[in-house]
# Entry
Amino acid sequence: AQSVSQHNHHVILSEAASLELGCNYSYGGTVNLFWYVQYPGQHLQLLLKYFSGDPLVKGIKGFEAEFIKSKFSFNLRKPSVQWSDTAEYFCALTAGGSYIPTFGRGTSLIVHP
Amino acid sequence: GAGVSQSPSNKVTEKGKDVELRCDPISGHTALYWYRQSLGQGLEFLIYFQGNSAPDKSGLPSDRFSAERTGGSVSTLTIQRTQQEDSAVYLCASSFMGDNEQFFGPGTRLTVL
# Structure
C-alpha cells in the first residue's frame, strides 16, 4: 500500500522567509499528487495538483511544487511567505487508478509578522 | 449549491448513544468521501461512494460505523454506541470524478463524553 510522509510537523517562519515543505511518498507506479491547505477556521482546499506533464506545478497564492520521480518527492515551495500563509498543509496522493487518496499527517506552518 | 455542507457543525453526545452526521455534496459530484481527523493526525479515510454505491468501505474502523448515500446526493454517516475514541472531526468531501480535486465541507466536530 502507498504512504505519504511529511517530515516537518511544525514550521515557524518570519514573513518574507522562503518556504519548503517536504513530501515523500512510497509507491512504484503512476501517482497523482496534491497539496491541500487548511487555514484557521476554514475548509480544506486544494493548493495545487500534479497529474502529468511539467513536473513543476504552480498553484494559488504563489505556491509551487516540484515532482521529482527519482526521489519520490513532491515538495511545496514559496519564495516569500506572508502572515496569511499560516495554516495546516497536507500532501496527498492517489495511485494505481485508485480513487482513494492517501494523506500525510500534515505540517503546521506559523508565520510571524 | 455553493459548496459541500455538513451538519451538525458540532455534536456532543454521551458514550453509548448513536449519532448521525450528514453531508450535502456539491450538485453533480458523483464521488463522495468521509474522513476522520483527530488532533495531530492526518486524514483517516473512512468510506467512498461512487453514486449510491460504496465500492470501498475498508476504512470504517468498526461495525459500529455505517454510511449510506441516497439519490446520488446526500450521505449520512452513522456511529452506533459511540465511544470516547470516536471523538474527532468528521470531514466529507466530494469530487466530480473520483480522481480529481476533492472539495471539502467544514466538518462535524464530534465529542463523546
